[in-house]
Amino acid sequence: MPVVKVLTDGIGELNLCDIGVYRSRGGYEQWKHAVTAMRPADVVELVSKSGLRGRGGAGFPTGRKWSFLPNNGRPRYMVCNCDEAEPGTFKDRMLLEETPHQVLEGILIGSYAIGSRHAFMYIRGEFKRGYEIFMQAVAGARAAGFIGEKLFGTGYSLEVTVHRGAGAYICGEETALLNSLEGKRGEPRLKPPFPAIKGLYGEPTVVNNVETLATLPHLLKNGAEWFSSVGPPKSPGFKIVSVSGHVKRAGNFEVPLGTTLRELLELAGGPRDGRKIVAIQPGGGSSACLFEEHLDLAYDFETMAANGTMLGSGAVVFFDDTTDFVKAAHALVRFYAHESCGQCTPCREGGYWLEVTLERLLHGGGLDSDIEMLVKVAHQMTGINLCPLGDSIEPFLASVVKRFEPQFRAYVKPSVAVSA
Amino acid sequence: MNGTTGTRDFAPVLAQVKPEAERLIAQYPDSRSALLPILHAFQNVEGWVSPEAMTAAGAMLGLPVSVVESTASFYTLFFRRPVGKYVLQVCRNLSCQLNGAEKIMTHIRERLNIGHLETTHDGLFSYEEVECLAACDRAPCMQVNLDFVYDLTRENVDALLREIMAGTYETPPLRQTAKPAANWHVEQDWAQKSPGAREVSSPNDPGGMGDVSGLRMIERLADGPVVLSGRPTEERLIVEGAARLKHTGSANEH
Ligand SMILES: Cc1cc2nc3c(=O)[nH]c(=O)nc-3n(C[C@H](O)[C@H](O)[C@H](O)COP(=O)(O)O)c2cc1C
Ligand code: FES
């Protein structure tokens, strides 16, 4: 089995929330090394060379993202995105609760690399325990002299502020997150300008995912090649994959990118007894479904994209032959309808109509024409919103309507169909 | 009535939150960033975000209450009406659904005799069906006052409800400074989030007039000339445009 232990090393065995335990395993040494022996540009170059791509959903090359910051002498901000709320994703919460110092060390290194003197950790409101754990980690690191003024006797100072959200999926979108961090409604901003140019308080800002940042200490320790030599050339490195749904042992599995979906299924204990997997949603609620014939595909950014879907946040949901895909579609559509911030009409109204239509179908009041309409409306609301939330309904809905159309038709009562 | 606070004395609450709020404000380059943390602090003390709390938060940050309220209303974890001492938030998203969440939700609804976003008469339980809690590996799951409870079954749910009723459950109750009503809806929510969603005609009739404000405007225009003074609002331009059209006969003859 291709499991590896990089970010997940020690989880479940050691109390990594204890700064002493974390340090006894080399924790914060890379932080000290970065500040005392590297220039920020060296860190950026190392990360660029490693080929690390963002783990938050879009898979954007991290080193490149950092290089967009203008050299205008303005304050710069590093923001760690721990708003994890993409359906099926539960890796960041594990990192936050089980190994907070590793996440913090990553935030510190990332901040240094981009020349930030103030970093923010945005934690989803529901993660109350994670927030408390992280607050303690920050206090411990501060007491040990890893956060604050003139670190390790150099001229570099860094502050860290931990911020808790209050329930809103959309705040995971980076510009909505920045608004929320500024004490506003979590509504996404029009882009451009991108956060790299005008982010938090209008200043150059980088928003990175928890897993992306937690990888940095390991990159510094082991070098770019250690990372880039693993997995396919365009999707190098390791990735924590959250596997759930109809499997025997759901969980987070850290694997080299390029591991096949079948191997992931096996890691998760395989399908339930006597059942067979008929569909796979490979990249969170916003991704299109793959099916049993795709089980041998490699799980990486390129292969997923080439097959009409995406790796997204690294959340793989398996569906077996007992699945009611009308109900599954309803759960996801209702989610996006509920989480629409309401700024853009297509997303706000489209999501609502689709939810109502699916509800009606489920309750026996659906029309035959509803099934075409579902796909049409989902398509029409795509690509015309401020942020990608409104585009997130179509991929799953369209893919399962196409594949499992009889399930949708079966909900239409004949009498209703005739009177329509 | 929804969450009457009566004439209770808010001063002790304020005294408790104030030092915390000052510490929070000092953490940010811009004080407004402390708004969500301050509202959390008030909710910790009161169990909900009361109108007094919003007024106080606004005063601390130099923000109009309307801005505080508009911001608070965006976030589902801020209760702007009192809720029960134990808020049960059950995940209804995909992985939990695939693992039997529906059965659990029905069970809790029946046991407590309340539905989504409702509170029991005795003010002990509130119930909400929420989105993915990032615990899909332990589905179905819920949060009780934001503490995770995993691998739900009818049996362990029953045990948990019994413990809460007996006062022996390990998670402490929320504070309750006002008696909760049957639900914690705030009426204007709908209008704020989606005007069109309220009176949407039919999902099968995409041309239908869903938005009440649009209807109102058409009615007003149909009622005859409206005298509008001041700035050239969009409405005025439409009205004047219509008058001009009438004057010149029709647009086509132009
Ligand atoms: C609707 C929506 C929700 C998102 N939620 C998250 C999230 O919970 N966590 C996250 O890291 N990124 C999320 N993202 C992606 C962020 O906008 C951003 O791309 C990411 O945090 C960048 O980090 P990375 O470059 O390290 O991947 C979301 C994007 C959208 C459009
Ligand atoms: S679907 Fe319920 S926790 Fe993710």
Give the gist of this structure.
The complex is a heterodimer of chains A (420) and B (254). Chain A is of the alpha/beta class and 420 residues long.
Characterize the structure shown.
The complex is a heterodimer of chains A (420) and B (254). Chain A is α/β, with parallel strands linked by helices and 420 residues long. Helices cover 42% and strands 12% of the residues of chain A. Chain A has 19 helices and nine strands. Chain A has helices at residues 19-24, 29-37, 40-50, 62-67, 91-98, 100-114, 128-143, 174-181, 210-214, 216-222, 224-228, 261-267, 301-306, 325-339, 345-362, 368-380, 393-403, 405-410, 414-419; strands at residues 77-82, 118-123, 159-164, 205-209, 238-245, 251-256, 277-281, 290-291, 315-320. In chain A, strand 2 (118-123), helix 7 and strand 3 (159-164) form a beta-alpha-beta unit. In chain A, helix 3 packs across helix 6, helix 5 packs across helix 6 (100-114) and helix 16 (368-380) packs antiparallel against helix 17. Chain A is globular and about 80 Å long. Mean pLDDT of chain A is 96; it is low at 416-420. With 254 residues, chain B is of the alpha+beta class. Chain B folds into three domains: 4-74, no CATH class; 86-166, Glutaredoxin (3-Layer(aba) Sandwich), CATH 3.40.30; 195-253, no CATH class. Chain B contains eleven helices and five strands. Chain B has helices at residues 11-25, 35-46, 51-61, 65-72, 94-98, 101-112, 154-166, 188-193, 195-198, 212-222, 234-247; strands spanning 86-91, 118-119, 125-130, 142-144, 147-149. In chain B, strands 2-3-1-4-5 form a five-stranded mixed beta sheet, with helices on one face. In chain B, strand 4 and strand 5 form a beta hairpin. In chain B, helix 1 (11-25) runs antiparallel to helix 2 (35-46), helix 2 (35-46) packs antiparallel against helix 3 and helix 3 (51-61) crosses helix 4. At the A-B interface, strand 3, strand 5, strand 9, helix 14 and helix 15 of A face helix 2 and helix 5 of B.
